[in-house]
């Protein structure tokens, strides 16, 4: 009797793949609201020790045996910032928005670290979920939230084709002010999900 092969884990975001080379070799990474751990797996495979944080115990259980990944079950929206006192060379956040912790992300980043953030933005409600404004970035919001405290390497916002549907994303790559400037700017891979028919701000 034939047995179905286990489903392959989702591919990492092209934005994270593009800017991952700016993470210092072997440096510690925080994958925040990691879900199934697509970025934790990818970054651990690149030689980084990864702390993968999520409130979903089942998702973390599947990820917990992956080499190079340490998991921690945390509800990021219950009380104070749960990673106080910890610092990371890189922080990766995708498909997640909880505005009260945005400032804590900067405090948790090494002085020369890199923040890679990508999530849904206003306008996505025309194409599907999420549609609640609480979970959609306002125009230029990542730039306004991080641009004053970090140095912006790249910023984009607009419509993209992803997973067979159109969605509206906003994304930023920003580094701590102790990072040597200018950093190398990785080229986008051919066929990546760039903005479609909407403006992109900044570099990228």
Describe this structure in words.
- This protein has five helices and seven strands; from the N terminus they run αβαβαββαβαββ.
- With 204 residues, the chain is of the alpha/beta class.
- The protein has one domain: Rossmann fold (3-Layer(aba) Sandwich).
Mind sketching the topology for me?
Blueprint: H1 14-19, E1 29-32, H2 38-45, E2 50-54, H3 57-63, E3 69-73, E4 88-94, H4 102-107, E5 109-120, H5 141-146, E6 151-162, E7 165-175
Parallel strand pairs: 1-2, 1-4, 2-3, 4-5
Antiparallel strand pairs: 5-7, 6-7
Poorly predicted parts: 196-204
For the largest beta sheet, what order do the strands appear in spatially? Answer: 3-2-1-4-5-7-6
Largest sheet: 7 strands, mixed
Give the name of the CATH architecture. Answer: 3-Layer(aba) Sandwich
Q: Give me the Rg, rounded.
A: 17 Å
* Number of separate strands: 7
Shape: globular
The CATH superfamily title: Vaccinia Virus protein VP39
Topology pattern, helix = H, strand = E: HEHEHEEHEHEE
Helical stretch tally: 5
Query: How much beta, percentage-wise?
Result: 25-35%
């Amino acid at each position: 009797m034939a047995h179905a092969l286990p489903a392959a884990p989702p591919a990492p975001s092209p934005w994270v793949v593009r800017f991952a080379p700016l993470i210092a070799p072997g440096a510690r990474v925080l994958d925040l609201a990691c879900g199934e751990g697509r970025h934790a797996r990818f970054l651990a495979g690149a030689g980084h020790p990864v702390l993968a944080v999520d409130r979903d115990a089942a998702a973390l259980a599947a990820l917990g045996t992956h080499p190079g990944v340490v998991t921690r079950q945390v509800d990021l929206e219950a009380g104070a910032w749960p990673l106080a006192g910890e610092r990371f060379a890189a922080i990766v956040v995708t498909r997640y928005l909880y505005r009260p912790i945005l400032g804590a992300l900067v405090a948790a980043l090494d002085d020369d670290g890199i923040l890679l953030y990508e999530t849904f933005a206003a306008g996505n409600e025309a194409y599907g979920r999420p549609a609640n404004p609480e979970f959609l970035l306002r125009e230029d919001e990542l730039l306004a939230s991080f641009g004053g405290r970090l140095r912006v390497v790249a910023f984009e916002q607009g419509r993209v084709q992803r997973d067979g549907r159109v969605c509206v994303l906003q994304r930023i790559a920003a580094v701590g002010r102790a990072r040597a400037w200018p950093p190398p700017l990785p080229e986008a891979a051919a066929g990546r999900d760039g903005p479609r028919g909407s403006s992109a701000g900044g570099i990228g």
